[in-house]
Design a protein that fits this description.
This protein has about 150 residues and is mostly beta strands. It has no helices and ten strands. Among the domains are: about 45 residues, Ribbon (Antistasin, domain 1), CATH 2.10.22; about 30 residues, no CATH class. About 0% of the residues lie in helices and about 25% in strands. The strands form five sheets. A two-stranded antiparallel sheet has the order 1-2. Strands 3-4 form a two-stranded antiparallel sheet. Strands 5-6 form a two-stranded antiparallel ribbon. The chain starts with 10 loop residues before the first strand and ends in a 23-residue tail after the last strand.
Amino acid sequence: PACHLHCEDGFEVDENNCPLCQCKAPVPVTQIDDLTTVQTTCAPVRCRMFCQYGFKRNSAGCEICECQSTQEIECPPVRCRMYCEHGYKTDVNGCEICECQSPPECLPMICSMYCEHGFTTDNNGCPKCECRPYPAICGDNIPMCLINCEHGLK
């Protein structure tokens, strides 16, 4: 099956070195001063505990043997070049992932009004029994054009 993820740091690989449809975690970077940043290579965490929300990180960005609570989860920015009209899906921690949300399922609208310019929509994009306002009339907001067109403007 095709993988539709865009991974800036490449893909994870399985035990046979075959790529998986899962992004590699970015290499942590430590800021030394305004001009110098150093890539930090972290050793894998070997702790005898399970942390539901993952491990805490030290100042170098490496995981340490302390569990992170739900309040401490910082979501990384979504590294995704895909536009999602209804936003991104979220993982178990509530962080956005590079998958599009499904469009909302709107209940059928029962409305006896006729609206010349259609209906307004709610926050989910579902139609409401409320007319859209008339489109704005240009009035004084007519764009100024300095091009002389023999047959007029389009």
